[in-house]
Amino acid sequence: MRFRLLLPLALLLAGCPGAATKAPVREKVVKAPSQGTFVATPRPAGSAVTRDPSQPTLPTDATGLFPTKPEAPAPAVPALTITTLAGSGAAGFADGAGVAAMFARPTSLAVMADGSLVVADHDNNRIRRVAADGTVTTLAGGPVAGATDGAALDARFNGPLGVATAPDGRIFVADAGNRSVRMIKDGAVTTLAKAAGQLPTGLAFDGRGGVFLTDALDNHVRRLDLASGQLAVLAGNGDFSVHDGKGTAASFNSPQGVAVDDQGNAYVGDAGNRRVRKVTPDGTVTSVQLGPVGGNVPFQPSGVGRLADGTLVVSDVGNNRVLAIPPAAKDQTPATLELATGLATPQGLAVGADGTIYVADTGKHQVRKLAGGVPKRP
């Protein structure tokens, strides 16, 4: 009954002489610094309305406007899906398609220009290729450990731990058992640097004619200049400790995987220190700000990748999961996201050009694929 009375009353008021007809409300999306995004409307003419003190102050380019309500949040990116790209789940060696292929503790991977993956197959002493459809082939190495250069399938590796790629197709290998850095190019393997630390572990091409190299035993980050062949310590003093600083004033504790941004900065999974460290081209080391990471054991970052928006993606080998660390806004703590769980000592991690995340699920002897977009917090 109440509804029937209200409707005629509204019609009557709209038709009364002197009754003002409301003009359409003109809304404008306004971003208030550090306070979010709001929908704002012009202040009505002659209005004595004052701003609610709980509302933010708008920027100067919004003169005459006042916030009315927060802008509706953008829809969240669909949650990613986790699939097995290749590997049967049992340790062994076999080329083939998808789960018909076999690895033995794959420890690192990198993305090639054509979208395929290069994998360091540690216990098989081989470097493998995984095509976009999951087909696995052997690029280099053989059934026994060794240190032989030469034609790719005749060459020998000894427990490779890290791989990296350059846009021109070169593949770099941290050949841990041989304490050397090797290169695969045009179907042949050559040794670029010997005596490359005690346990060369992570590799990344820096886009400036060099390769970053981490060492999990002597706690250094080195840079190999590919033109001169010079391998030099960029940061770290060898101690198992944690200090930010420049060059040898900084220290690490079992640094693992490494990723590089467009400015040539390296991001290192400093597993023993439970941190991700940033290393600039001049060797200055800082600790990346992290939000709460949780987990059953302390955070142990191993593989590191980087999305186009600056989000770091990290495999947490101790908690068998993958996390995303978005860039921190000024004076705010980043909201760390848990992307995948149920893995088995995931070590290597890489990000494709389309944002797809690939993980070396070492304990399950598989290469996993996380696709669909990193979810956003509401």
Strand content: 35-45%
Estimated helix fraction:
under 10%
Q: By helix and strand content, what is the structural category?
A: mainly beta
Main β-sheet, spatial strand arrangement? 5-9-8-7-6
The value of Rg in angstroms is 27 Å
- Multimeric organization: single chain
The stretches of 5 or more residues where confidence is low (pLDDT under 50) are 1-27, 43-56, 58-63, 66-72
Describe the largest sheet.
5 strands, antiparallel
Please, how many helices? 1
* Count of DSSP strands: 30
What is the overall shape? globular
Distance between the termini: 41 Å
- How confident is the prediction overall: mean pLDDT? 84
Describe the structure.
The chain is mainly beta and 378 residues long. The chain is 4% helix and 41% strand. It has one helix at 2-15; strands spanning 28-32, 36-42, 65-70, 81-86, 96-97, 106-111, 117-121, 126-130, 135-141, 150-151, 160-165, 171-175, 180-185, 188-193, 200-205, 210-215, 220-225, 231-235, 245-246, 255-260, 266-270, 275-279, 284-287, 301-306, 312-316, 321-325, 337-340, 346-351, 357-361, 366-371. It has a five-stranded antiparallel beta sheet, with no helix packed on it. The protein has a five-stranded antiparallel beta sheet with strand order 10-14-13-12-11, with no helix packed on it. Strands 19-23-22-21-20 form a five-stranded antiparallel beta sheet, with no helix packed on it. It starts with a helix and ends in a 7-residue tail after the last strand.
